[in-house]
Design goal:
By secondary structure, the chain is of the alpha/beta class. Helix content is 53%, strand content 14%. The protein is elongated and about 90 Å long.
């Protein structure tokens, strides 16, 4: 269970960021500190203690008022001293277990979810989003910190700037206060305390000290915002490789709702183009499929996800698919039999989504998490749209009929297999 209190060290002067408080620098449209506090709140943290300097105190106060967090402030009148001293100043505001974070570190939601389960120093043996040469390294012996510092040659992991501590740490800071006159680093505290180490490897986190690192943080947030579970083969191997790069370019400029409207408009336009040019219609339909991932990536990177947004996006996808297949059938088919095949293909396309969403509504669980076998079933939306584009690049009466026949079989067979897996799952005791 996550601690209820978090201490945020924000007393640095931010000289390499132009003298701005680093915690209030925006990345992907949100202040760094907003991200950290929001993600910690989602894990059960209720109260924050922010240690800052006199220059930035009012800026942080205004930030807290604007966003409505529950926070207390501790003033560090000597910010030039080490950040170990900043931690010591928070001792009167903290009891029991607490989270300790730095104001200039950016974390993904998955990282925070895992980190709060640990204890002591949270370390990463496979850091992906930092310059390891500049990072604080940790040498671990017997599950505890043996040595820590940037210059370590022999090291086991990297310090992530995230800690799960308890108030006994202030016994160590009190000793260092007397020895070093209050000028000591957090690394000195960690090494003397021989903190336990919890490894959280390869997940999204980075620190921001320079404008260059701000760009890296933005990239990290976008590239770790991919939904993953539920993506089809085409999304995993083609669409996401393109959509994440588009999201990186747009994440500071466009909201998820704006992107949803653009994607819907492009999808409907591609449907209308089936009356004019089938190859162009297919290409734009595939492009709309790629862009359909962008609004979700933006929402997760910007911390703007909402159930309503996902609901509306799903509805609009069904309208695009229905309009495209209906107009394609209207513009190419003549025989009643093939109209019937097209109708079954359209119904099957709608039912693929409905079959999993209905499971979620009935059992309050994501079907792809509850039944991993569903992830490997072909016929998801991204795969159907890519298949449609391929058949329309060199269109003929035969290729369109084959397309509708294939979609009819693929979608309805998938729905049937999904229903079988779900029936088998719910018939097992204590599985839902």
């Amino acid at each position: 269970m996550a601690p209820k209190t978090a201490v945020v060290l924000a007393a640095g002067l931010g000289t390499r960021m132009g003298g701005k408080p680093k915690g209030l620098v925006k990345v992907a449209g949100r202040e760094i500190l907003y991200r950290t506090m929001t993600l910690l709140q989602r894990q059960g943290v209720e109260r924050f203690v922010i240690v800052t300097n006199g220059r930035y105190l009012e800026a942080y106060r205004e930030f807290i008022r604007r966003h409505g967090f529950s926070a207390e402030f501790v003033l560090n009148p000597e910010p030039e001293k080490g950040n170990g001293h900043s931690l010591h100043l928070a001792r009167e505001k903290v009891s029991g277990r607490f989270v300790l974070v730095m104001s200039d570190h950016v974390y993904s939601e998955t990282f925070v979810e895992e980190a709060v389960k640990g204890r002591g120093l949270i370390a990463d043996r496979r850091p992906r989003w930092i310059d390891v040469d500049e990072a604080t390294k940790v040498q671990v012996r017997g599950g505890r910190v043996e040595k820590i510092g940037k210059g370590l040659k022999d090291w086991d992991a990297v310090d992530t700037g995230f800690f799960i501590l308890d108030d006994r740490i202030f016994n160590v800071t009190a000793e260092l206060e007397e020895e070093d006159n209050g000028d000591y680093s957090l690394s000195e505290v960690v090494e003397r305390a021989k903190l336990p180490v919890t490894f959280v490897d390869g997940l999204g986190w980075t620190d921001v000290d320079t404008p260059k690192e701000l760009k890296r943080a933005r990239k990290m947030l976008v590239f770790t915002s991919v939904k993953g579970i539920g993506d089809g083969f085409i999304s995993r191997h083609i669409n996401r490789k393109i959509s994440t790069r588009i999201s990186y370019l747009l994440v500071e400029r466009v909201t998820p709702n704006q992107m949803t409207v653009v994607t819907f408009a492009l999808g409907m336009f591609s449907a209308i183009l089936t009356l004019v040019s089938l190859p162009l219609a297919g290409i734009l339909y595939q492009l709309s499929s790629i862009l359909d991932g962008v609004d979700g990536e933006l929402a997760r990177a910007q911390l703007r996800t909402s159930k309503l947004g996902g609901y509306v996006d799903s509805l609009l996808d069904r309208y695009v698919d229905g309009a495209f297949l209906a107009l394609l059938a209207y513009s190419t088919l003549r025989e009643p039999l093939w109209y019937f095949v097209a109708l079954l293909a359209l119904l099957g396309s709608v039912m693929v989504s409905y079959s999993t969403e209905r499971f979620k509504a009935a059992f309050c669980r994501d079907a792809y998490r509850a039944i991993p076998a569903l992830r490997r079933l072909p016929g998801k939306r991204d795969e159907r749209i890519f298949l449609t584009m391929l058949f329309l690049l060199w269109p003929s009466a035969t290729s369109v009929r084959l397309l509708f026949g294939l979609l009819m079989v693929l979608t309805n067979l998938r729905v049937g297999i999904t229903a079988y897996f779900i029936a088998r799952k719910v018939s097992q005791p204590k599985t839902i």
